[in-house]
Structures are given as C-alpha cells and as structure tokens.
Design a protein that fits this description.
The complex is a heterodimer of chains A (216) and B (323). Chain A has 216 residues and is mainly α. Chain A has 8 helices and 1 strand, in the order H-H-E-H-H-H-H-H-H. Chain A has helices spanning 18-29, 32-35, 50-72, 76-79, 81-110, 119-141, 146-161, 173-202; one strand spanning 39-41. In chain A, helix 3 (50-72) packs antiparallel against helix 5 (81-110) and helix 5 (81-110) packs antiparallel against helix 6 (119-141). Chain B has 323 residues and is mainly alpha-helical. Chain B has helices at 6-9, 20-42, 52-58, 60-72, 110-122, 127-138, 141-155, 175-187, 190-197, 207-215, 218-225, 249-253, 274-290, 301-304, 307-311, 313-322, and strands spanning 15-17, 159-161, 164-166. In chain B, 34% of the residues are buried. Classes of the chains: A mainly alpha (216), B mainly alpha (323). Chains A and B meet through strand 1, helix 3, helix 5, helix 6 and helix 7 of A and strand 1, helix 2, helix 10, helix 11 and helix 13 of B.
C-alpha cells in the first residue's frame, strides 16, 4: 500500500506538470496572505473602501433572494405575502447593490484605482457594471406587472433600432426571464469573483502621489 | 509593475491590523438588516398588468379604433419595419442601419395577426363573421380603403353603450360586424389567449399581445399616469413612489434633450433615429468609461480634483503636520 509522505518535495529535475505550474503561479501571484490579508497599509482606513464590500454583500442578498424567487416560480410573489416579501428583499437588495456599486465606482475613479497595473481590474469593474444593468433590466421586464409591460414596449424600439431586437426580444417574457435568472447572474457573479481575485492579487493602490515609492 | 509582489509594492509602508472576514461578515449582516427592514416596511411595486380584456372593456372605442387601424396598416406595428416586417425603413444613422441587418426575424402582419386570424379562430362558428371576413378578404385594396376611411372617421365620434361601440350610419362594408365580434372576443378575454397561444399550449412570448396593446392609446395613457412614458424619463421610473432603474439616468436623459428630441436634429441625429443614436452614444460612453485608464484628461482629473486627499487624509496628514 502506498502512503502519502508529508513534506514530500519535488526534485528540481522532475518534469513540471500543468497542475504543478498552475499551483506555482497561484502560490506566487495569490498567496493566502494576499487572498485573506490580516494587515493592510495604514491609509486603507477610509469609508470609501467599504463601498466595495457592501456591493459584494448586497450581491449575496440579491442572489439569495433571487434563488428563492426562481425556485418558487415567477407567479409566486404576486399571490403570496411571503413571496411578496422575498420579491421586496430582492428589489431593495438590488437598489443597495447599485447604490454601493456606483459609490465604489466613483470612489475608485477619484482614487485613480487603475494605477500601477490595475487597469484590467478597472475595466472588468466597468463590464460588471454594464452586465449588472442588463441583469436588472431583464429583472424589471420579468416582474410580470404593468411596469414590465410598458418598459418592454418602450425598450423594444431602442433594441430594434440598434439591431439587437432581432435576437434580444424584450417582449418575450420567457427569454428575458431565462436570461435574468441564469446567464446574466452567472456572468455578474463570475466577473465579481475575477474582480476580487485581481484586487487581492495586486492589493489596494497607493495614494496618488506615491508612485515614486514610499512617502515619508 | 504587475509582476511586483505586494511585499515589494508596499515596502516601507506602515501596515495596520485588518480583518477582511469580519468586515465582510459585518457587511453581510448590515446589508441584510437594512434590506429586510426596508422590504418589510416598504414592500415592492406590483401594479397589475393591463390585459386586452381590460383594455377593451375600459376603452372599447380605443380598442376598435386600434383594430381598425391595424387593418388600414396605419398603426406603429403595421408600419414598423424590421424585425417585425419590411413596411417601415427602420432607423438610420448616416450609412448605419442595424435595424435591417438581421431581417424580419419576428414576423408580424398586423392586420392578419391582430384582426383577421383571431376572427377566423374565434368567430368561425358565426355565419355573420364568416360572411364578413369573406367579404373583406375578397375585396380589393381600393374597396377596403373606401370602407376603412369613413369608418375610422366615424369612430372619432363613436359612442359606447353596454360595452358596445356605435358609430353614425354609413357604408362601412363588413367592418362593423368584424369589429363588434372582435370586441366581444376581446372583452371576454379570448383575444388575450388567441394572441399568445398560437397553436401551442405552453407559451411565454407576449410579443403579439404587447405590440397590439402598444398600438392603442389606452396603455400609454395608463403609463403616463405612472410617469412611465419616454418623455417622463420612463425607462428609469417605477410605478408609485418606488425607485426604478435610476442607474439608467444617463441613458434616459438623452431622450429629453435636443437633438434627440428635434425633428431636424443635428449632424444626422434627430428624433426619428433617437433610439439608435442614444444606443450608439451610450456604447461610446461606456467604452470610454472602461478605457479611462488610457485616456488623457479623463485619467488625469482625479489628480486635479483633490478628492483623493479626503479619501487618504491619514496618508496626507503627516505632510501637513511638517509643513
């Protein structure tokens, strides 16, 4: 019987496997002390940094309440007080999500958070913002109430004028609902994870005039 | 720079204790409490949708006028263009006309879809309806026009009694029979089903019903009462006092100002192609936002406006102390 040997090392001459390479890259680029840091530069004490974590927290509530709503079906919340509560939780979580995300975006803009190799983190953040808007838009179209009807009728002209309406039919509840509960939330959640990992890999950016190194 | 480790990047900078997991947990609990409390006390908007039945019951003249205009080909959907039909030219911005790039992907023949076919399905047992439909479909386009024009004019002064629409006497051909039967079908709820089922049992596509209701004025009048129309910043509004999609404010603002509201426009942008122009503009602005790190001036504004000095005031404080 072969038993695992704790602390088994890999000799330098051993062929490098893909798995080992991935592990080495992760170890180097995202060690656990960076992923879950217990210390931060002293200037990371502003409330501006809180907007990012509030956005994540709101997203968790959006997804959790959305899972309950989708599990029970799109009709449920119209006829049940409990369903109405979960819809309200979903609705207000979305409002909190966007409020904190916009504050996070403006905060990062005025901190020029893209400096020192963080441009891709900024760009993914903008993509998250865009997909979130699309997700919320399909959510409003999926409410199955009067607002959904008129938003759909209004929005179709923009979609059709841009040629998008041929494939993205806002008058088709099934299509909008499917996108809202499946594809778009997966996209937002995946990109948020990528965004967080990129933030943790590089750490928070230095204050604006600190490019030269340490400020005394 | 990107290959630099955090240890190298922060070298010489004082660090302080920080509990990421605790912060996230507190945020989850805090946001949850706020969301639960607000949800419990303020609930969420849910104004019931308008059905074709409620439309035809509450405003039968508008319903019959809309249906007649569908036959005349004068409604929005009848002359829309792609992706529903090829009657309208579609929006165009300079040489760009994306509305026609993918053709008629969702074909809608307004007269047949909204009037003729429902009558054929629901009114086939009535000899009056069958005869009226036969008269209509075998008539020439010129003859149909001779019936339609005076009937549409007469509907302008129509009266309603017991849910039925009456117009002044005239030569309207089969139109009064067709329309009174279509109105009956609609008021009973039958047209809602006919426009959605389309030979299937399960359905989730409301394209036909919504286009038909959008052609009338009843739905738009209801929307105006809730401040949902385009000129009322409708895309970012919600029924009642609830917040809507406020994050669409920049998208919506263009619909309120020239040249997007002007018939003459500016540099080819006008009210007729406002939808396309706004989408193009928002695409450009979104791309600019994503590319801010590479765009001079935009990326320099944070250096010029010292908001960062408020954000990092602990960092800048020592300099002030020694100045």
């Amino acid at each position: 019987m072969v038993t695992a040997k704790p602390g088994l090392s890999h000799p330098a001459e051993e062929p490098v496997s893909w798995t080992l390479r991935v592990r080495q890259v992760v170890d180097r680029r995202l060690p656990m002390e960076n992923l879950l840091p217990d210390r931060q530069p002293y200037y990371v004490g502003s409330w501006v940094y809180v907007f990012g974590v509030i956005t994540i927290a709101a997203l968790v509530w959006v997804v959790a309440s959305g899972v309950v709503l989708s599990f029970m079906g799109p009709q449920w919340w119209h006829d049940s007080s409990l369903g109405r509560f979960f819809n309200s939780l979903h609705f207000w979580s979305v409002q909190l999500f966007f409020l904190s995300m916009v504050l996070h975006l403006w905060g990062q803009y005025f901190m020029a958070g893209w400096r020192h190799g963080r441009a891709s983190t900024w760009m993914i953040g903008v993509v998250i913002f865009g997909i979130s808007i699309l997700t919320a838009f399909t959510g409003y179209l999926s409410q199955q109430n009067f607002a959904s009807q008129f938003v759909a009728i209004n929005a179709k002209d923009a979609m059709n004028g841009a040629g998008i309406g041929a494939f993205f039919n806002v008058l088709n509840f099934g299509q909008m609902y499917g996108l809202h509960v499946m594809l778009l939330p997966i996209g937002v959640t995946f990109l948020v994870v990528v965004h967080i990992v990129m933030v943790r890999m590089r750490g928070v950016v230095k204050p604006i005039d600190a490019e030269g190194g340490v400020r005394s | 720079m990107s290959r630099q480790t955090q240890e190298e990047y922060y070298k010489g900078i004082k660090t302080v204790r920080y509990d990421l997991v605790k912060e996230l947990t507190l945020a989850l609990v805090g946001v949850g409490i706020v969301a639960v409390v607000v949800a419990a006390f303020l609930s969420s908007p849910d104004v019931p949708p308008v059905t074709i039945a409620t439309w035809s019951q509450n405003d039968p003249v508008d319903f019959v006028t809309t249906a007649t205009n569908e036959l005349a080909g004068s409604t929005t959907s009848a002359g829309y263009g792609n992706p529903y039909n090829t009657v309208g030219a579609g929006q165009q911005l300079g040489p760009i006309q994306p509305q026609n790039w993918f053709g008629t992907r969702i074909p809608i023949d307004s007269a047949n879809t909204f009037v003729i076919m429902p009558l054929q399905h629901a009114g086939s047992s009535s000899t009056d309806v069958s005869a009226a439909l036969n008269t209509w479909t075998t008539a020439t386009a010129d003859q149909q026009g001779l019936w339609l024009k005076p009937y549409i004019q007469a509907l302008g002064s129509a009266t309603v009694s017991g849910g039925a629409v009456s117009v002044a006497a005239g030569d309207y051909g089969p139109l009064p029979v067709m329309m009174s039967n279509l109105l009956n079908i609609a008021q009973s709820g039958g047209l809602d089903g006919l426009l959605m089922i389309n030979g299937r049992f399960y359905q989730t596509d409301y394209t036909q019903a919504l286009l038909f209701m959008g052609d009338g004025t009843y739905l738009a009048n209801q929307a105006a009462q809730w401040n949902l129309t385009g000129s009322q910043w409708g895309m970012m509004n919600e029924t009642g006092a609830y917040p809507g999609q406020t994050w669409l404010w920049l998208y919506t603002v263009w619909y309120q100002i020239p040249p997007f509201t002007s018939p003459d426009g500016f540099l080819g942008v006008n009210a007729a192609n406002a939808d396309l122009s706004v989408i193009v503009m928002m695409t450009v602005l979104t791309a600019a936002l994503a590319l801010v790190p590479f765009i001079p001036i935009l990326r320099d504004i944070p250096r010029w406006i010292p908001i960062h000095r408020l954000i990092w005031r602990t960092y800048y404080a020592p300099k002030k102390a020694t100045a």
